[in-house]
Design a protein that fits this description.
With 278 residues, the chain is of the alpha+beta class. 25% of the residues lie in helices and 25% in strands. The protein has helices spanning 29-38, 42-48, 54-62, 122-125, 130-133, 156-163, 183-191, 227-234, 265-274, and strands at 40-41, 66-68, 71-72, 79-80, 86-88, 91-93, 100-105, 137-138, 147-153, 171-177, 193-195, 198-200, 204-209, 212-220, 239-247, 260-262. The strands form 4 sheets. Strands 7, 8, 9, 10, 13, 14, 15 and 16 form an 8-stranded mixed β-sheet that branches. Strands 3-2-5-6 form a 4-stranded antiparallel β-sheet, with no helix packed on it. Strands 1-4 form a two-stranded antiparallel sheet.
Amino acid sequence: MPERKSSQRARTGKPERKATPKQPSGKSIAEKKRGEVEGVRLNRYIAQAGVASRRKADDLIAEGRVKVNGEVITDFSRRIKAGDKVEVGGRVISPQELSYILLNKPGDTITTKSDERGRQTVLDVLTIPEEEKSGLFPVGRLDRHTVGVLLLTNDGELAHRLMHPRYNVEKIYVARTKEPVKSHQLEQLKEGVQLEDGLARADRVSYVNPPDYHEIALLLHEGRNRQVRRMLEALGHEVVNLERVSYAGLTAEGVRRGRWRRLEPHEVKRLRQMVKLS
């Protein structure tokens, strides 16, 4: 369990040839021009606008909820070109610059975009322009009183894959209970605890700082609603504090509770590789 906390050619004497201008995108001029002519596939355009993953975008298209230049489009091969007007559910959309934010979620905060009862949400905590904030959504959920690592993004495709069971994204929690957790109960958590929605198990469980048996660390790949709390409650334990200390290898190291930071490019690249997006 992880602890907390061009080359140049030599001169030949031949007349010097002018270098071909380098394209910022890494694509050839012909590829770039071809891309401008063909445009972007509709489902990708929707995903880049932060509306939904490509798979969910296909569902929206099939349901007739997508219009291009005022016409309902159900053709999945449709490509969007410069000047096209795309609407989803009556709202005009456009690709956004992708944002990836790691929040050290504070307690008494709802993991949602908004709350009809006026309670603080994770988006309320972010000190960023409203136009950027409006496109963000949390990747998965932490219940109101659970603190720790939470990823927010407008990258619908990445978020969808990170939450999908197929990719087995790793999560590590540290739970503190009112009464000490017995050693045989650690084994029960690994073997599986029966919940109302089926058997739930932790891949690894250990004490954090023995001989303090009130605090344990659990590594899971599942992501059911309130799973850690429910597993411990099923063994008769009241959870006093619960923190997610790692999500997909991301930790809150250097980020105080209630603060946030943007992911570094190498972190985004690793996440995309993890879920086979690059």
